[in-house]
Amino acid sequence: MTITQGEQPASDPAAGPVRGRRARLAGAGGPRKLANRSSAMLVSGLLALTLGITAVSLPVPYVVEAPGPIFNTIGQDSGKPVISVTGHETFPAKGNLDLTTVYVDGGPNGPVSVFEAFSAWLNGSKAVYPQELLFPAGVTKEQSQQESATAMTTSQENAVAAALKEMNIPFEQKMEVAGLPDDSASKGVLQTGDVLVSINDKPITALGVVQAELAAGNGKPVSVSVKRAGSPVTATITPAKSSTGRYILGVLLQYKFTFPFDVKISLDQVGGPSAGMMFALGILDTLTPGDLTGGKHVAGTGTIAPDGAVGPIGGIAQKMQGARSGGATLFLAPAANCDDVVGHVPDGLRVVRVENLTEARKAVELAASGGDISGLPVCTSN
Hints:
Elements: H1 15-26, H2 30-57, E1 59-60, E2 62-72, E3 76-77, E4 80-81, E5 83-86, E6 96-105, E7 112-113, H3 114-122, E8 127-130, H4 131-134, H5 141-166, E9 172-179, E10 195-199, E11 202-203, H6 207-217, E12 222-228, E13 231-237, E14 240-241, E15 247-248, E16 252-258, E17 262-265, H7 276-287, E18 297-300, E19 303-304, E20 310-311, H8 316-325, E21 330-334, H9 338-341, E22 350-354, H10 357-368
């Protein structure tokens, strides 16, 4: 906002008597003093205006989230199917299974100004957070983009695994050591590239098996068997206690899959893990006869694990706004995000709480059949 301050020009007829009276009261030399005073006031005003503009333009350590675009996972993006399958029969699908996104300004993406942060705070569709809540200190734009791209790739692989598991289609799944921090309890024992086979003679089929065995042992040493370059290796590891109180091996793990056919997901300029559940639903719809949605407009968000568990994400309030603006009437939200859902649901949007892919699929099928969805679980405040 620009505020302009000035005085009536001398040619204004209404100014004559006033200017004359002031001159007489001032006595000799009065007009010059008035001119000097006016100049000083003008300079002061310009200086204040400049300082004000500078102040609102200064960057602040905040991040602004706003509703982003939506993408139909059973539709197309840039003229190409979002989901394409080779080596398995597919079925055309109607309706919408929209994944939702957020725009993020601030942090490594570039600073936001005081004015931008304040404007976003006043805007009900946006959210403002301290930068350190969303980005580690010192992270660069390139590092953030790489992390986001990696998370997207992982979510796509997990989505394929979860969809095939839901359909009882067998595939090969392994857990591989992706890295070991310097303070890892497994440092010098396990190596990057090791494939986990068993823990205390229990086959490792998922991360939950490792976590359950470590919790049951309450810090006692465990026997871990791996395959290293194709050869079996068994080691004893004493787990460490994390800051959250859980016992951990202290390794970074990643899933490695071998699927019986190829599933390709093509989506430009979108990153992060939060589209996993909607990708899995889109894959299910693509691989099964009929329309999962019954032609209805469904949207949602949530990470996905290979076993189908749906996890929490960020920016859900903005994602619900984007979904409703895009025409969705049913929204699938992770149960772990319920506290962020309550009080932020747009008018006309029905939000259903889900904990896994099976619950999400059943909710969509019920809505598609025209059934009563009022009995489906919803988010309530804690």
